Amino acid sequence: MKKRIILILISASIFQNIFSQQTPTYKNIDSVQKAEAFIINTQQDSALIYLPKNTDKQYVKILYEIAKNKNVSYKDYNTFLSTISKKKIIYYDLISDFIDNNVKIPTNRKTINKSFFNIKYEQITHIRNKGDIELSTEKNEALEAYVNLFDSDLKQTKISRAYLKVHSTVLAVIEKDIKRGKNMANDNIILAQTCGDKTLEITSLLLFSDFLTHERKLDEFIEITEKAYELEKQLPNKSFNYGRIMTRLLEGYTFKGGYDKKVLEL
């Protein structure tokens, strides 16, 4: 009991350095979110105090395993990291440090570990979106070295390399290297369609639309973005691209004019 009282007294000040400014007050943070924060801050014993006991919830069970550092799979890490990243209440720099310190390269060389790849891909995306091109490029190259350990003819290797190419395509957008960028985006669109990877296709379509913006091709921009929207609706859950698609459609429709009905349907 004494340990719990002391922990509660110091938690508020600790969380000021963990939670982002999007979290309104300490009182609004539930016990699971507090446990997540302690795990990210490598205070596992404190995390265990906040986790509900005798729960049937799978996610809480995963948090227990991570807090105890016991039988944690890459899939568990992926679930945990994707969940807290989507909440956007913990500073991503802390999440990134946690990944670097805890999610090591798999030793299995038979197949690419999809969960590990996804964790590192999302980390690269977050870092690049923050504007740290050098670090995101460094991590993209490290992930590419992992993928290159596997047979290049395997479907998963081809898909993984296509996702890695997203980084170079984004850099081409920044550098306004339109011809090269459109070629890379188009190659990924074709591969995504061949392999049936809708998320990759959506991402690549949006990147292709970035170059259309540079070229001031509004009609084609709207057409490509609408294709991305139709694919997005086919996914079981909204992807990280959903917000970008909605914003671009609204901007395209508004700028073009005459799309009032479609705007209302969004």
Question: Could you describe the 3D structure shown?
Answer:
- The protein is mainly α and 266 residues long.
- The chain is 72% helix and 0% strand.
- It has 14 helices and no strands.
- It has helices at residues 2-15, 31-40, 44-50, 58-68, 74-87, 92-102, 114-129, 133-147, 155-175, 178-195, 198-214, 218-234, 242-256, 260-265.
- Helix 6 runs antiparallel to helix 7 and helix 7 (114-129) runs parallel beside helix 9.
- The radius of gyration is 21 Å and the shape is globular.
Instruction: Please report the number of helical segments.
Output: 14
Our estimate of the beta-strand percent is: under 5%
Calculate the terminal CA-CA distance, rounded to whole Å.
Answer: 52 Å
Number of strands: 0
Portion of residues within helices: over 70%
Could you list the spans in which at least 5 consecutive residues all have pLDDT below 50? 1-14, 21-27
| Mean pLDDT metric | 87
Instruction: Give the radius of gyration.
Output: 21 Å
Keywords for this entry:
disordered N terminus, 266 residues, 0% strand, globular, mainly alpha
Give me the secondary-structure topology.
Blueprint: H1 2-15, H2 31-40, H3 44-50, H4 58-68, H5 74-87, H6 92-102, H7 114-129, H8 133-147, H9 155-175, H10 178-195, H11 198-214, H12 218-234, H13 242-256, H14 260-265
Describe, in short, the structure shown:
By secondary structure, this protein is mainly alpha-helical. 72% of the residues lie in helices and 0% in strands. The chain is built from 14 helices and no strands.
